[in-house]
Design goal:
The protein is mainly alpha-helical. The protein contains 3 helices and 2 strands; from the N terminus they run ααββα.
């Protein structure tokens, strides 16, 4: 039966061997993919498009809103949407900070 140290050494050797094999296979796969992309004239969007209803490609584009409030001290602004920043979170009458 092999000792713990021997097994750890074998694991290290196998991990190194696996890393070399992976790098070699990745090079082959990339060459194949690049050749097929060029052959079919595919675009990045066509290759990486996700299925409908999932992922970044199908999300609504984020539209930033114009600022509604301004901190008179720091000049920081807030649109009034989402969590209130610290400079306005505890203000009772926000009307005085409205941007007009």
């Amino acid at each position: 039966m092999a000792t713990y140290r021997e097994l750890k050494a074998q694991i290290a050797d196998l991990e190194e061997e696996a890393a070399v094999a992976r790098a070699s296979e990745i090079a082959e796969v990339l060459a194949d993919v690049r050749a097929k992309v060029a052959e079919y004239g595919l675009t990045v969007h066509e290759v990486f498009e996700e299925s409908p209803g999932r992922g970044e490609a199908n999300r609504r584009p984020h539209q930033s809103l114009p600022p509604k409030y301004r901190d008179p001290v720091s000049g920081l602004t807030w649109s009034g949407q989402g969590r209130a920043p610290a400079w306005i979170a505890n203000v009772k009458k926000r009307e005085k900070l409205l941007i007009r």
